[in-house]
DNA sequence: GACATATATGTGTTTACATCA
DNA sequence: TCTGATGTAAACACATATATG
């Protein structure tokens, strides 16, 4: 998510985005058939980040999901799941017996599932707890885990799969809401920052009109660039616009409202 | 009865893999 | 043997339907 040029500070754009720590997640799965990584879409480690800089520096948002691992898992799996709807329909009609058998074993307390084909399952508290715990461990399941959970909970693998899908959706929704709030706050902060910068720019322009800036400022007001560690002379050999010094007492131009750190020139 | 939530279903996309020319 | 095209299966996200409290 990138919001470029929200407030348009001169030629630089403001990038307002959500980032995430790319910390390596440890694979908690016991049956590491396929060194499964968690999908990067997972929001648990998203950390909001604001960038104030050139467009090319704007943050690249959540990367494409690494699906490879799931494919590998699926290809290795002895368990067939009816995830593809068309296939599912076909198979349900062809293998009705199998499906019915699954239904019968799906829930101990559902005696008359034949009566209502879409009677909604209500998970018991224990089942929910186990599923939640499992979800905390890993938000996606490989076929083996799915099967094991299904057996443990006396549910169909499909039900476990659906529960995880819906659970991921809920997590994402909640995270989106949190992110939205965060972005609003960031936006407000940046708006204020933009105002301040505009004001500062006006002041600098007015100073420049009156003469070279460095001639007007006491030496004590010049600071060293944290990046190149030199005091820029501004209008020396290059362009005066690339000045590397800033005025003490004001925040540096590229101020990160989140980290409260300035970006070096 | 309206509403929120949980569960289920349908659809489209992506990817790995197998097969074939 | 290598390579690109093609088909298939599996898993997912997402939207939506529907049962339930």
How are the secondary structure elements laid out?
Elements: E1 13-20, E2 46-53, H1 68-76, H2 85-94, H3 96-106, H4 125-137, H5 143-153, H6 157-210, H7 213-216, E3 255-256, E4 261-262
Antiparallel strand pairs: 1-2, 3-4
Helix pairs in contact: 2-3, 5-6
The structure holds a DNA duplex (21 and 21 nucleotides).
Concise summary:
The chain has about 260 residues and is mostly helical. Helix content is about 40%, strand content about 10%.
Overview of the molecule:
Residues 116-175 bind DNA. Belongs to the HD-ZIP homeobox family. Class II subfamily. By secondary structure, the chain is mainly α. Helices cover 42% and strands 8% of the residues. The chain is built from 7 helices and 4 strands. The strands form 2 sheets. It has a two-stranded antiparallel sheet. A two-stranded antiparallel ribbon has the order 3-4. Strand 3 and strand 4 (261-262) form a beta hairpin. The radius of gyration is 28 Å and the shape is rod-shaped. It binds a DNA duplex (21 and 21 nucleotides) through helix 1, helix 2 and helix 6.
Keyword list:
mainly alpha; 8% strand; 4 strands; two-stranded antiparallel ribbon; 265 residues; 42% helix; disordered C terminus; DNA-binding
Number of helices: 7
Low-confidence runs: 1-116, 229-265
Give the termini distance in whole angstroms: 25 Å
Radius of gyration over C-alpha positions, nearest whole angstrom:
28 Å
The secondary structure category is mainly alpha
Share of residues in strands: 5-15%
Q: Which outline best applies?
A: rod-shaped
Using DSSP, what is the number of strands? Answer: 4
Mean pLDDT: 56
Record the strand order, biggest sheet.
1-2
Please outline the major beta sheet: 2 strands, antiparallel
InterPro entries: HD, HD-ZIP_Homeobox_LZ_Class_II, Homeobox_CS, Homeodomain-like_sf, Leu_zip_homeo
Keywords: Coiled coil, DNA-binding, Homeobox, Nucleus, Transcription, Transcription regulation
Subcellular location: Nucleus
Pfam families: HALZ (PF02183), Homeodomain (PF00046)
């Amino acid at each position: 998510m990138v919001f470029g040029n929200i407030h348009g500070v001169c030629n630089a754009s403001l990038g307002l985005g959500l980032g995430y720590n790319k910390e390596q997640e440890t694979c908690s799965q016991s049956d590491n058939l396929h060194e499964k990584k968690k999908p990067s879409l997972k929001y648990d480690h998203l950390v909001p980040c604001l960038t104030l800089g050139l467009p090319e520096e704007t943050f690249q948002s959540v990367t494409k999901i690494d699906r490879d691992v799931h494919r590998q898992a699926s290809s290795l799996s002895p368990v067939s799941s009816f995830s593809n709807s068309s296939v599912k329909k076909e198979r349900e009609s062809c293998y009705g017996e199998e499906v019915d058998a699954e239904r019968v074993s799906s829930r101990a307390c559902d005696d008359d599932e034949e009566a209502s084909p879409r009677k909604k399952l209500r998970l018991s508290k224990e089942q929910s707890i186990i599923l939640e715990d499992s979800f905390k461990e890993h938000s996606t399941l490989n076929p083996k885990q799915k099967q094991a959970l299904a057996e443990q909970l006396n549910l169909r693998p499909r039900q476990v799969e659906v529960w995880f899908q819906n659970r991921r959706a809920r997590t994402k929704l909640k995270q989106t809401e949190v992110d939205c709030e965060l972005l609003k706050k960031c936006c407000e902060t940046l708006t204020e920052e933009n105002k301040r910068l505009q004001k500062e720019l006006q002041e600098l322009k007015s100073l420049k009109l009156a003469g070279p800036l460095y001639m007007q400022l006491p030496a004590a007001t010049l600071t060293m660039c944290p990046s190149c560690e030199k005091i820029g002379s501004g209008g020396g050999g290059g362009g005066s616009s690339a000045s590397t010094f800033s005025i003490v007492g004001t925040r540096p131009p590229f101020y990160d409202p989140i980290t409260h750190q300035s970006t070096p020139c």
